Amino acid sequence: SFSTSQLSAAKAAVPRKHHQDGKHHPRCISSPVTTAGAYRSHHVLCMSATAGEGSQSSRHIERTSSIIDEFISAVLKSLQEKTFESFTLKGPPAPRKKRRSSNSNKSSTNNEDIDAKIEREKEALRGKYKTILGRLVFLQDKKKRRKKKGGNDAANEVETGSLYLQVTIKYHLATDIAQNWKIGTINEEDDEIALDVSEVESGLRGIFANAWGDNGNSDDSVVVPLSEWGATTNKAGEMDIRSGELVNADGVYNLQLHGKKASFRPSKTKNKNKEKGKSQLMNDPTQLSHDRTKNVPLSTSSEFFQKLGVTNSDNKPKMASKLRQCQKFVEIVSKLVDTSYSHDSPNNDGAKNIRVIDMGCGRGYLTFSVHSYLSDKYNNADCVVETQGIERRPKLVQEINGIARELGKGKFEKLNFIEGSIGETDNSIFGDAKQHQNVGNKDSVDVVIALHACDTATDDALWFAIGRGIDVIVTAPCCQHELRPQIDHHVSNNPNHVLANVLRHAIYRERATEQITDSMRAILLEIAGYDVQVFEFIGGEHTAKNCIITATKKVMSGSKKEDAWLEERRKQLIELAELYGVRRQRLASLMGESITSSSNLKVKAAGGMPPL
Prior knowledge:
It contains 17 helices and 15 strands. It has about 600 residues and is of the alpha+beta class.
């Protein structure tokens, strides 16, 4: 505390231009009422001396400094008591143009004046604080890993590291910065956190010193950097931080520094975590680690990943892109199966089995992944998951069958691989094509997968699924070459085509071929009675062929409204094909769907299209 005589003496002793040159005045530093690093004593005297003649301004500065001290003390106390959660400080808001009423008749000149004024106000804020956010983070020591007593397993390993208060500073019209202020480290002996809040105190005082306009805070142990625009200029006694908020396990506290009455008091807003008594984050700082375990459907410790060479013996990825594809693909398939399973069950007396065929399965990365996940989720006394992979290469089929057998008689007992071609496999678990297979009238949910089946092989897989009334179809088309010669011919014979300036470039014709092929497939699946979605299932950095088509079987009512909708889809299919000069498409031919308005070019379905 300071007496009136001390403040008056400070005013008389210190020049009014004090601190405007960014340096501490020697009289202030050597003053008997100040001590090294004491923020309040230093700035109450200095700001009082520069505030002007009025005593009211001096009292306001003293009051503001006192409230700042209260806020800093509350932050430090909550850290020491392990109740801290976060804090926020807010600077002056950016000026905005007010909305004009609809009947306003202000001239454009006035509007220009307003815009110019707003720009000047924005420029005046450049480099000043906009928002300051403080949160806890735990940074793990990568080289220091120790094991708990009485165990050698990886599960017993203890993460060692340091706890930091991460402060993100956002400026007006300047680059954001972030600083980590160390709070403590995990004790090697008893896993307790040894707290030291000196960096936090020094950092907060530096922030408020900058907000006062005193940018020469080099005596602090933590230097809070200015924006790239350097020091800002403030009027005497002006504070760049207007308000703030401290959240801890005991509640929410509001800081108010703008206006005549500065205050720091509890808020009416309740903290949702207040009933916990202590901050869960500070009592278990490993929750704050950036190296968090990802929530993925398949564990990287799965034995089949090691057998296939996706992960190593330490469960670390050897094929990171492939692992990511497997995880994402399983997410997609599981949601579709969940929907179809719940959709079918009400129409079925007992629980349903799940049957999956992966056509062109290759080495079976996705086949093993889907079977493992669905088995873990659905396998029980009433539901059996059976998966079959189809591959043309006999040596590869033998290898992956061997891996499945090595994994034991558990959930992988119902996983097998057979030699065959897409759409031409007679001994599949689905058997022959089914006629009139309505949703809800069979004892299994059937799934067909065909990823990266080249060119028309995708159409063969789709026809295989359509002809058997498969419930869920998942395909990622590849190498769509069938339509390219037709599009090239159409463009060369129609120089005035509406898309001539796009399709005259070969690269765009290639991309158009992919889009038109998959768009026609989507429409044909809708005509066949499926709900269809087309989307990107993984980033292009992992595979260029990352577009996926999913289809789930729906019940066809045969109503007039539905018939009209189907007719409209057929019309749109023809319009799309004719726009690009497409006269033949494999799936349309197999289904017996015409893609041209010329009646003499209609085709007959291969093998007979099941009536809708």
